Amino acid sequence: MLIKRPTDISPAEVTPEPLYRRRREFIRDLGWLGAGAALATLPFPGRAEARLGDVARSPFSTDEELTDYKAVTTYNNFYELGTDKGDPARNAAMLKTEPWSVTVDGEVAQPATLPLEELLAPHPLEQRIYRLRCVEAWSMVIPWIGFPLADLLKRFGPTARAKYVAFTSIHDPANLPGQLFSILEWPYSEGLRLDEALHPLTLLAVGLYDEVLPAQNGAPLRLVVPWKYGFKSAKSIVRITLTEAQPRTAWNTQAPREYGFYSNVNPDVPHPRWSQRSERRIGEFFRRDTLPFNGYADQVAGLYAGMDLKKQF
Fold first, then answer.
1. Torsion sign (Cα): 260, 265, 267, 270
2. What are phi and psi for residue 201, nearest 5 degrees?
3. Among 27, 132, 155, 289, which is 20 to 30 Å from 64 by CA?
4. How far is residue 87's CA from residue 82's CA, in Å, rounded to a whole number?
5. HEC string of the chain?
6. Number of Cβ within a 10 Å radius of residue 209
7. How far apart are CA 114 and CA 94, in angstroms?
8. pLDDT tens for residues 223-258?
9. Alpha-carbon separation of residue 291 from 1, 6, 223 (angstroms)
10. Is pLDDT of 43 > 50?
């Protein structure tokens, strides 16, 4: 089982020493309120250089070995920055993340558009070591820094009509090379059922390891839903909309036979072009069996009671 109660762990055990050598010391002894102020002034470069300070490790963490930082930040799916796995890191400087604001609207009592630092400031950060699996049958184990999406949604007051949450990513074709091509319907969109969005495993991430989120990983704000395939974790979010109807999502719109709305990790539902029964952890040679719900079945399977997950995939 992937989720375990953490034991005491020092920061050195979480963040590799080479990572510290690549950064300048930008912020010292920083709590989250201080980090919120720092985020307001950081340019969010392609390679993160600002530390987020002391962050508590969450009980929602695996004790599995972490994926190497270089792999996490150079082997990415982010089609706005290119379709090759190395393109997002090479083109990271094209993603302009300062200034940044996020709109929360739709079926909420208090819709608003807020600068990023105001949106994040009330929410204390925690570290969650999650396994993220991509539909191409590869996976990573990443120490994300963020806070529960539920905390943000409750702050804006979902109405009784709210059944789903839609996420919209940045649309900036003048700077993002991938958006010059009709690979997907731009801007990138994703969605969750409201109970999925409110589940305590669902995270809004602003960093990884102990650094501000790099552009190629979805800076400055991305979703992390660890029991679903990676494309459900929308990057560079500019709008969060609560809706009564199921929202359109980018990959489901582009190829509905291949990518369902739910996209829960399921070894019994193959992609039309390849099996999902096994996966390759980046940095490992041998493949391993894919676990239902990516190993989080004990926590989330109840959300789908009574559903045929081969049809509602």
1. positive
2. -75, -20
3. 27
4. 5
5. CCCECCCCCCHHHHCCHHHHHCCCCCCCCCCHHHHHHHHHHCCCCCCCCCECCCCEECCCECCCCCCCHHHHHHCCCCHHHCCCCCHHHHCHHHCCCCCCEEEEEECECCCEEEEHHHHHCCCCCEEEEEEEEECCCEEEEEEEEEEEHHHHHHHHCECCCCCEEEEEECCCCCCCHHHHCCCCCCCCEEEEEHHHHCCCCCEEEEEECCEECCHHHCCCCEEECCCEEHHHCCCCEEEEEEECCCCCCHHHHHCCCCCCCCCECCCCCCECCECCCEEEECCCCCCEECCHHHHCHHHHHHHHCCCCCCCCC
6. 23
7. 23
8. 999 999 999 999 999 999 999 999 999 999 999 999
9. 10, 21, 21
10. no
The residues near 296 (Cβ < 8 Å, ≥ 6 apart) are 2, 3, 201, 226, 227
Which residues, at least 6 apart from 47, have a Cβ–Cβ distance to it below 8 Å? Answer: 22, 73, 92, 214
Task: Set out the domains of the chain in order of their start, with CATH numbers.
Answer: 11-304 (3.90.420.10)
pLDDT(27) > 50: no
Paired with 103 in beta bridges are 113, 239
Tokens for 227, please give them: 């029991």
Share of the chain above pLDDT 70, in %: 83
Q: Give the list of residues 6+ apart from residue 6 with CB closer than 8 angstroms, or none.
A: 57, 58, 59, 61, 63
Place of tokens 């459900």: 232
Instruction: For 102-117, give one letter per residue: b (16+ CB within 10 A) or e.
Output: bbbbbbbeeeeeeebb
88-126 pLDDT, tens per residue? 999 999 999 999 999 999 999 999 999 999 999 999 999
Q: Which residue reads 């996020």 in tokens? A: 102
Query: Among all chains, which residue has been given the structure tokens 């930008």?
Result: 26
Cα-trace Rg, the chain: 18
Main-chain dihedrals φ then ψ at residue 122, nearest 5 degrees: -75, -5
